[in-house]
UniProtKB/TrEMBL annotation:
It is found in: Cell membrane. The chain crosses the membrane at residues 12-30, 99-123, 135-157, 177-197, 235-261, 281-307. It is a multi-pass membrane protein. InterPro entries: BPD_transp_1_N, MetI-like, MetI-like_sf. The keyword Transport applies. Keywords: Cell membrane, Membrane, Transmembrane, Transmembrane helix, Transport. PANTHER family: DIPEPTIDE TRANSPORT SYSTEM PERMEASE PROTEIN DPPB-RELATED, PEPTIDE ABC TRANSPORTER PERMEASE PROTEIN. This is ABC transporter permease. Coiled coil: none annotated. Belongs to the binding-protein-dependent transport system permease family. The keyword Membrane applies. Residues 95-304 form the ABC transmembrane type-1 domain.
Amino acid sequence: MLRYLSGRFTGMVIVMLIVAVLVFFITRLAPGDPAAIMLGDQATVADIAKLRAQYGLDQPLLVQFGFWLKELAQGNLGQSIFLQMPVTEALASRAEPTFFLTIFAVALACLIGIPCGIVSAVWRGRVVDQVFTGIAMLGASIPSFWFGLILMQIFAVKMGWFPVAGYGDPGAPLLDRLHHLLLPAVVLGVLNSALIIRFTRASMLDVLSDDYVRTARAKGLNERRVILRHALRNALIPVVTVIGLTAALMIGGAVVTETVFGLPGVGNLVVSAVQRRDYPVIQGALLAIAVIYVLINLAIDLLYTLIDPRVRY
């Protein structure tokens, strides 16, 4: 296990270096000058040049990249050009809405996807299977921004059950702030449950045809126990994989949902940084998302050993 973990962490370091290179240089390829955007249309060439020199933007790209890597090695993601604060603090101040939104959405996606996938597999070819398969295809096809606007119009504007947008006042109780996340969590959870339904159904269909399931039924075991105790546990590995990947993608892909619902999360921060060409924030946020993605993949691999004792590293 130690050998496996050391190899994985070595691979993670290599992946992070590759991500750092891609993020840095692709960010610089985007048109626009952060100094010019920050100073506005009335700024002179001298003012822009002075501000570029202040933030080191006048240095060659390789020099800027080397300085950024040096800062990363010290655990520093840089200083935001527009927010005038460390990128780490900017990300930390926006992390709470994105974190809770992801947790709620993943939980909802699992609560919908796994039971629907099991029922669809057990009742294969019947009406309920066709209904859940159609729901999965529909969920995979609906744009998140459109679904979010529809739910907002119905449940926030007309019925008034939920806030239209925002995350509540900073001093508001946590439950009040979490109330703002229910609608966006439903948007992400329902749409992402489609993939979990499909994977759960396919994995369960493979397992239900195995010999040990037929043997369990022949021994007279209760059908619910056969499905949940024997079949589901052995079908969980691909399901857990897709759940983990879904959670990782939600963290990086909640940009549209956070924008629609006006949530002050990491996704909204990245959108603002892109519009203002705030290079340090863009680089830091994307690198942090990549780190979370890699760590979730590692956690999934380790979880395999708990689900299936036959898995060894």
